[in-house]
Amino acid sequence: MSGKVKLLSGGNPQIAKGDGDPPVQAYIAAMPDWKRAVGEALDAMIVREVPHVRKAVKWNSPFYGGPEGWFLVFHVFNRYVKITFFDGMLMDPVPPVSSKSGNTRYFHIHEGEPVDTEQLADWIRQAAALPGWLMH
Prior knowledge:
136 residues; alpha+beta; Aspartate Aminotransferase, domain 1; 3 helices
């Protein structure tokens, strides 16, 4: 990728949509400040917990999925990184942040706040075992 990546509102990197790991890695490399380390750790955890994960960048966000659909996406905001679990209401425990759309639940990572990595890894495993979200 040539040139500097434009950061959209909230500091979210503007990355062209594409399938596979390269666009996801370009997104993570363009994440500003402390959020880049969050993106790197999150990507590594997803790959560790779901070795054959499918990756893509769509709507300026990295998507992770399996053969049946997408189970997770994350997005940069000014004060946090938002992880979206498309079937979060079907997980136990349910991720903490509610959504207005169906089964979706969120988990926010803020700078300097501890993250229960065991719980996050469990949510990733649970999410990957669900059918996921299909894009039409």
